[in-house]
Amino acid sequence: MKIWKRAAVGMAAWSLVAAPSLLASTQVQATNPAAAHTASRTSLLDVFVPPLTSPTAKSVWTVGQTVEVTWDTTDPPQHITNPKGAIYLRKGDMTGPMLDEGFDILKGRQEVVVPDVPPGNDYRIVLFGDSGNFSAPFTIMEGPTDS
What's the fold here for domain 52-141? Predict the structure, then answer.
């Protein structure tokens, strides 16, 4: 049986995969003092994967418009590995530009300005915090032109 958890040590975080027999900290402490020191500073945290609720497949955004990206924060884990979020725009297999960052992932919504991008119906929002969540594909259309 494997256990998937994310472990945080100081400012760094990584995935920890171990069989139950490898989780015996007394065995690590007895054989490797450096690992014992690291183990004493390690806390297991949970990955939070909130599903995006907006934009939806029916959403149409306009370049220059302020829009709200929303996600479901129901039942978050007690210890989240990364409580700060970032929102990126994605088209096809290309992610970017970043639309916002540094907000509380538990807030469940964030306003962003639609960047000046070519019109299309295959845009997605990617919400990063603990992981990258994708919205449904949606449409971005050109903004008003100055004449």
Answer: Immunoglobulin-like (2.60.40)
Amino acid occupying residue 85: G
pLDDT tens for each residue of 22-58: 333 333 344 444 444 444 444 566 778 889 999 999 9
* pLDDT, tens only, 93-130: 999 999 999 999 999 999 999 999 999 999 999 999 87
Instruction: Give the containing element (helix H, strand E) for 119.
Output: none
User: CB-hemisphere CA count at 13 Å for 118?
Assistant: 4
Whole-structure pTM value: 0.68
Confidence band (pLDDT; 50, 70, 90) for 90?
very high
Supply angle C-alpha 59, 61, 62, rounded to 5: 155
From residue 112, alpha-carbon distances to 22, 24, 42, 47, 80 in Å are: 45, 46, 36, 24, 24
Instruction: Please name which of 91, 80, 55 lies closest in space to residue 131, comparing C-alpha atoms.
Output: 80
What value, to the nearest 5°, has the Cα angle with vertex 61 and ends 58 and 64?
175
DSSP single-letter state for residue 131: S
Residues of the chain with CATH 2.60.40: 52-141
